[in-house]
Design goal:
Elements: H1 8-36, E1 45-49, E2 52-56, E3 60-61, H2 69-76, E4 82-86, E5 91-96, H3 98-103, E6 105-109, E7 112-113, E8 123-127, E9 142-149, E10 156-164
Parallel strand pairs: 4-10
Antiparallel strand pairs: 1-2, 1-5, 3-10, 5-8, 6-7, 6-9, 9-10
């Protein structure tokens, strides 16, 4: 013989299940609402020197649309720029998300274009000595290096501060 609740006990259990189901649906709906309010993360750029790497989301990004010149200059003066120590004898490796590569990108050093043309590669290597060479516009023991997305107009900017390794 089974012992199923009858009468009021059965109705109470159904009501409890219904309340739990409504609460679950409400929680899921609230979670989806919160997620839909989040901004989509920007593509990432990474700089690697030896066994150390630093990655960053864009300092300026307009979801693939052109950035204003005033926005770009402000981004180059950002205080939130990640830094990495660079040995001038080491190789510096730049890696970008395929989204950046598809639009083409180039390197800026202290705001001036370093590469003669844009590239669509996701990976690029450059000798560390370039970033501290006065011939390329370097001064002192630190350099601001930026990845500029876009060929004719900039659609994104990722910046890194290179600090010269003086332990050698």
């Amino acid at each position: 013989m089974t012992s199923l609740p009858r009468g009021r006990a059965a109705n109470g259990q159904r009501a409890a299940r219904r309340r739990r189901a409504v609460a679950t649906v409400g929680a899921v709906s609230a979670g989806l609402l919160v997620l839909s309010a989040c901004d989509k993360p920007t593509p990432m750029a990474t700089v690697t020197v030896g066994d150390k790497s630093v990655s960053s989301e864009a300092d300026c990004y307009n979801d693939g649309d052109a950035l204003k010149a005033t926005d770009l200059s402000g981004c180059l003066r950002s205080k939130d720029i990640k830094s990495i120590t660079v040995d001038p004898d080491a190789t510096v490796r730049f890696g970008v998300d395929p989204d950046i590569a598809d639009k083409g990108w180039t390197l800026l050093m202290n705001g001036q274009q370093l590469l003669p043309e844009t590239t669509k590669k996701t990976y690029l290597t450059i000798p560390g000595s370039v970033f501290f060479n006065q011939q390329y516009g370097a001064t002192g023991s630190s350099t601001l290096v930026s990845i500029k997305e876009g060929k004719a107009t900039a659609t994104g900017l990722w910046s890194f501060k290179f600090k010269k390794d003086t332990d050698n």
